[in-house]
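User: Here's a structure from my thesis project, written as structure tokens. My advisor, Dr. K., wants to see whether a designed sequence matches the one we expressed. Can you design one independently, without my sequence as a hint?
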């Protein structure tokens, strides 16, 4: 049977459990296209960011 070689400290246990507190990703609805996108990210369907065309759309 597997036996731990030494006690896991509270700090190491906390490091391991820190990912449990991560929140789910937030999405907002785009004003122009109505698609869901991440805040402060480019809308990949239209190539727009803050009202400006920043990416060319592939057809």
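Assistant: Designed independently from the structure alone:
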């Amino acid at each position: 049977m597997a036996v731990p070689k030494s006690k896991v400290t509270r700090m190491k246990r906390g490091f391991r459990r820190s990912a449990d507190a991560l929140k789910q990703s937030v999405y907002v609805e785009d004003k122009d296209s109505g698609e869901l996108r991440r805040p402060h990210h480019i809308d990949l369907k239209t190539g727009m960011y803050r009202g400006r065309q920043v990416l060319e759309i592939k057809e």
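When you compare it with your expressed construct, this may help: The beta strands are 28-29, 36-37, 48-49, 52-53.
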